[in-house]
Fold this protein.
Amino acid sequence: MSKFYQNLKNFILIEDRLNTSLFSKKSIISIIRCILEPLAAENVPSVIIHRLKNTENLDSIVKRLEYSRNIEMYNFLDPDIVLKDDLIELEFILLTSSRYNAVFMWDYSDDEKKENSYVYMKLNSKNVNHIFEILSNNMKVDLKEKFYSFKPERRENELLNHCISNIVKNLNEANNENEFNNNALNFEPKDECKKLKEQIRHTSHEIRNQLSVLDIYSKILEKKFNDDKTSSLIRKSISLINMELNELKQFDNLQLKETSVEDIIPVSIQMFEEIVKQNNNKIIFINSTLDGDKRKVLLDEEKFLAVLNNVIKNANQFTQNDEIIIELSKDKNYVKISVQNHGEPIEDSVKNKIFKDGFTTRENGFGIGLSVSKKYLAEQLGSIELTCSDEEKTEFLITLPLMDVI
């Protein structure tokens, strides 16, 4: 085993790898997509060095990156690039860009079926530089000037990597659970599985047809009554429903971009202003951020709006004659959104269950809203928690890391 290979291999074996458990190949592919998609989506100036032995499930994004005019890709399996390649089963993605830098490594050599591996991943870390130095010593091309010309500053960003670690662990657990469920389905008659898929497809198609009708009538309303506000809110709801239908079709449809939360919260409040009046409630928005604080977050606007809508809807459903208070604040690292009501407190026996998929205390509830909200926020490096529920108030807190932290 060469010193070059051993130096890289050691990074997977050191204590700060993401998880002591093995990651499935499906999870690893999903993580690769999450690392590369922001660069491909916005053609972000960047340099990418990779050693991917099999890109069968990554062809689309790899080709998008290769054809991007601002992105330079170097394949470590290319003999014109590397002096010697004896890395066997070790694979990696190493990148630096004007937005972020990252290293992600895995090695299937310890698994007989070549389907599972331990992983190592860092973003905006000095270890990205360390890995690059090891690689550059075994490359024919000199990329140091290009690699070190990019920002952000390379430093140990424990906050970011802690968020990433939690997300990746959850992703791996979800993929393993889905794999288990898929295997369980194999014991069912294939015709039943096919029938279920067809039913989902047909139902989605019919829902989209009705949404198209709603969209047309919203435009008619706008033209007839000159009420563009109501029409706009209807179309926003249609957009959110379409997003949920897309979730049935594909997993990796996250559209992240730099956004001011201050611009999204009023949209959600507008959508519920009339609805909360049915319970004699009203929404009060408190912006506690400092004047001129324009720091942004990285999120999917549609999914984040769906989260806000879920939380506000719940706050309205469980109280009457009340003020629903939405408070926005920022500290050094995070933007925080508090949603409060003053109705009946949540029972202690169910506080630990409210984010579980399928759990509900309402007779006609589905138990989906909060679990989906938690999932969406995790995809965007954020979180949601119940911080308080007593006789005084019930408060949910949404937290997202600020861009200058990421």
In short: Residues 190-225 form the longest helix (36 residues). Residues 284 and 325 are 5 Å apart (CA to CA). The longest strand covers residues 90-97.
